[in-house]
Amino acid sequence: MFGKPSELKNFFSVKSVAVFGASRNARKVGHIILRNFVDSKFKGKIYPVNLKAKVILRQKCVKSLFEVNEEVDMAVIAIPARFVPDALEQCGKKGTRFVIIVSGGFAEIGNFELDSRIREITEKYKIQVIGPNCLGIFDAYTDFDTLFFPRYRLGRPDEGGISFISQSGAVGAAVIDLASREGYGFSKFISYGNALNVDETDLLEYLGSDKNTKVICMYIEGIKDGRRFMKVAEKVVKKKPVVVLKAGTTKASAKAVSSHTGSLAGSPEVYSAAFHQSGVIEATCLEDLFNFARTLESQPAPKGKRVQIITNGGGYGILSADACMKYGLELAQMKAETIEEIKKQVPDYAVVSNPLDLIGDADTQRYKIAIEGAMNDSNVDMIFVIILYQSPLVTPDIVDVITEAYDEMKKPIVAISTGGDFTEVHSTALQANGVTTFTYVKNAARALKMLFEHYRKR
Amino acid sequence: MFGKPSELKNFFSVKSVAVFGASRNARKVGHIILRNFVDSKFKGKIYPVNLKAKVILRQKCVKSLFEVNEEVDMAVIAIPARFVPDALEQCGKKGTRFVIIVSGGFAEIGNFELDSRIREITEKYKIQVIGPNCLGIFDAYTDFDTLFFPRYRLGRPDEGGISFISQSGAVGAAVIDLASREGYGFSKFISYGNALNVDETDLLEYLGSDKNTKVICMYIEGIKDGRRFMKVAEKVVKKKPVVVLKAGTTKASAKAVSSHTGSLAGSPEVYSAAFHQSGVIEATCLEDLFNFARTLESQPAPKGKRVQIITNGGGYGILSADACMKYGLELAQMKAETIEEIKKQVPDYAVVSNPLDLIGDADTQRYKIAIEGAMNDSNVDMIFVIILYQSPLVTPDIVDVITEAYDEMKKPIVAISTGGDFTEVHSTALQANGVTTFTYVKNAARALKMLFEHYRKR
User: Fold this and answer.
1) Is A360 on the interface with B (CB under 8 A)?
2) Domain containing A197 — which CATH number?
3) Contact between B424 and A153 (Cβ < 8 Å)
């Protein structure tokens, strides 16, 4: 690390960028990176570096950085590894101190000599490097984007509060692609690969102070300096939740880790203990990482773990109760007056208990009554709303009813729906309004248990 | 039970059907059921029974079954509970011996008197009843469909090998809606509700002999006669796999069971032991039920549990190895000659090990080489193919390569991809070709472990 993590903000406020490896070939990494700059909202200057071409994607090329008369804030390097030292030398001499090296072919394949060379150059010129062997960064707020996956293949999410630090580019990319499809907002995504001189802890510290970031997600294969990570994490979690997925937790996969990013996987127990001690939330699979992040981003702190289940399908209510108990939540017992009040307003065949079964012919009004009852009952800490949109009486204004209940931020409320296209349209609408939705009750229960544990410790 | 389960086939070969409760009001259950008959491929005669209307949906109405001069094979009853006895009497006198009672309002709400009355009538006339308090049936092969959820809300799946017996209509409906979106084929769906005289065991026995059914799925809240269920299940599982999700496995949810379908939830341990003993596969959540069913439908029996992981994302390979170990699978060790053969044909920076990391620039040809190597190596029992479609070099013909490998049916092969719209298009194409796909490696590992255990016992 050179300078301070606070310097990392320079990676996200670039006014001019050079692309080493810019190419006319639409399948080349350098082409896709250049295209993303050209097609995005990025308003800065773009300098494609190419020895032969004069113009690529309507951008005038330079043969080297020395042809540029103005300052160049950042360079993205996407050329074969052996040419990277020369590109870095150009950056150093030109005063370009923020560089993303996308290219692989260094420590991760055992090429320690080349690794040492680029390390020396960055030290000489005090260049901060994200990478090598990475995707670089994406900022949903500025649309600054060095990801070399075409936008038609990898959707970019809208602005939101989740930031994601990923040692693996592909894992991170898959998650933001999923998030973009499902309507979840992101702040920054950083794939840092081999971590030449900017590592996971630097990035964690930086995002801890980033105002657009409300939740920090991390995919990690190895941590370089455990003590420093814990010290920084302890500080950051006071400001915002941090969720980590540690890969390589078995002997077999630990071997794969070293050939992927050159990290040492380390003992999973030691990692777990360290995460626990520093207040970091550990996810044990990618699905939980994604679910935990979006739940933490949108839901308020629960006062306890007593869940009221509201459903229009009896079987789904039972499965929800099973899942709540299995994953360590409790079923709420609403107050007698709440139950009376609800009973007055719903048909007598509705089962006003927990689960509260509004029955298959429930309309939006019936949901509204039940949700308001549970929301205002101090015996209820969290609400599961199961909506089976297959039922003909559930009208689209159910989205508004749940959004309004959620907007009060009194207690966590999540919506669970399983189904096809009609269901997805409504679930996505809820997600776009900030409400956390799930396809399966199991995942909702796991996420709310995590939420309870997280805030209980604080 | 009257007659034999073999008689149940009459519910699926109907040539004329009466709809009690047929209505002009598009939101009424009776309207939706009538519309489904009219709009579907059903070619038989339809008799809407309505006291006032003369024509509904271009179908001539009758005031009672006695106005119909021809035989009526089946009646669907969707009228208030108190009028059901009269409708049943009409059926009995008319000789209509197969009836689906959609209406609720019997034992499940404590109305045992009405329950007894309809029971007497069915005994008197030897009427077989599916229901009451149910959705009835859907047959993807004949398009016969009594589900009262509109098709724009609840997609109907194409023809396939999965049949689903569900005590809860809504749980079943949500799953077939999901299946229709994701491209999985179904044979028959039966929601049997209160099980007046056709119960889960009768339906299990019937589907055991149904040639279109390759896998039987069940959602159960309670089993009426445990011994009989086990005896029948033991016979059926010799012919095809049976997967059961038992709901109400906690004290809290068991209470909800009795108010939902009037069943006794029973001790979860007793159920688990009975399922295990009779060779039934137990799913512990809805997601597993769905995943297990589609895996059993499409995958061949594995010889062992050694998995070869093939990936274009290193991190994903590591997460897959973690998941395999966590859920009880093993990592395969390919033969030296296989490794040599693959190494000859892929770039030297690919990591030909397990996980086999084809690296982010892998094209379809590289996948083909790796898949063929693993498919022909007797040290490999199952194959995980991770495809991150975000990478620009993965071309759509990857779908053909995997389909061809799968079509050989030599060993289980599943495809795992996480992402947005571009990814979904390709995953759905694979599913349509019969290949099992997953969004998360965890679920793939759980499903393949189940597959291994299932065939090991046989």
Assistant:
1) yes
2) 3.40.50.261
3) no
User: Are residues A390 and B149, on separate chains, in Cβ contact within 8 Å?
Assistant: yes
Q: pLDDT tens digits, residue range B138-176?
A: 999 999 999 999 899 999 999 999 999 999 999 999 999
How are beta strands B144-145 and A159-166 bridged, if at all?
unpaired
* pLDDT value at B277 more than 80: yes
Identity of the residue in B221, B255, B418 whose CB atom sits nearest the CB atom of A174:
B418
Checking phi first, is residue B143 left (phi over 0); if not, alpha (psi -120 to 50) or beta? left
Domain end, chosen from A232, A264, A296, is at: A296
Tokens 């973690």 belong to residue: B322
Structure ipTM? 0.92
Most A-contacting residue of B253, B284, B292, B438 (CB-CB within 10 A), to test interface: B253
Residue A32 φ then ψ, to 5°: -65, -40
**Integer angstrom CA distances of residue B55 from A214, B20, B33, B61:** 60, 14, 15, 5
Place of tokens 């990475």: A134
Q: Give the gap in angstroms from C-alpha B198 to the nearest C-alpha of chain A.
A: 19
Is A315 close to B154, i.e. CB distance below 8 A?
no
To the nearest whole Å, the CA of A68 is away from the closest chain B CA by: 31
Q: What is the pLDDT of residue B3?
A: 55
Interface subset of A 371-410, CB within 8 angstroms of B:
388-393
pLDDT value for A186: 94
Question: How confident is the model over B37-51, as pLDDT tens digits?
Answer: 999 888 899 999 999
Shared domain for B238 and B322, answered yes or no, is no
B33 and B144 fall within a common domain = yes
Domain membership of residue B77 as a residue range: 5-296
Nearest to B60 by CA among B75, B74, B49: B49
pTM for the whole thing?
A: 0.93
Chain A partners within 8 Å of B423 (Cβ): 153, 174, 177
Does the CB of B175 have a partner CB in chain A at under 8 Å? yes
Q: Note whether A146 and A184 are same-domain residues.
A: yes
Strand partners, B198: none
Q: Which residues contact A409 (CB under 8 A, 6 or more apart)?
A: A300
Q: How confident is the model at residue B236 (pLDDT cuts 50, 70, 90)?
A: very high
pLDDT on residue A216: 98
Pair (B316, B224) in one structural domain: no
- Check residue B110 and give its pLDDT: 87
Three-state SS annotation for B370-426: HHHHHHCCCCCCEEEEECCCCCCCCCCCHHHHHHHHHHCCCCCEEEECCCCHHHHHH
Q: What is the CA radius of gyration of chain A?
A: 25
Which of 37-76 (A) contact B at CB < 8 A? Answer: none
Among A262, A279, A296, where does a domain finish?
A: A296
Q: Are residues A304 and A385 in the same domain?
A: yes
Q: Are residues B417 and B268 in the same domain?
A: no
For the cut 80, the answer to whether the pLDDT of residue B231 exceeds it is yes
| A109 and A12 in a common domain | yes
Whether the bond between B48 and the residue before it is cis, its omega within 30 degrees of 0, is no
DSSP A60-98: E-BSSGGG--S---EEEE-S-GGGHHHHHHHHHHHT--E
Residues B289 and B437 occupy one common structural domain? no
Task: Check A321 against B250: CB less than 8 A apart.
Answer: yes
Please tell me the predicted confidence (pLDDT) of residue B366.
Answer: 96
Average pLDDT, chain B: 93
Q: Which SS3 state, helix, strand or coil, does residue A148 take?
A: coil
* Interface contact A318-B256, CB threshold 8 A: yes
A32 has a chain B CB within 8 A of its CB: yes
In chain B, the percentage of residues whose pLDDT exceeds 90 is 81
Round to whole Å and give the CA distance between B429 and B399: 7
Q: How many domains does chain B have?
A: 2
**pLDDT tens across B324-349, in order?**
999 999 999 999 999 999 999 999 88
* Regions of chain A where pLDDT drops below 70: 1-5, 259-265
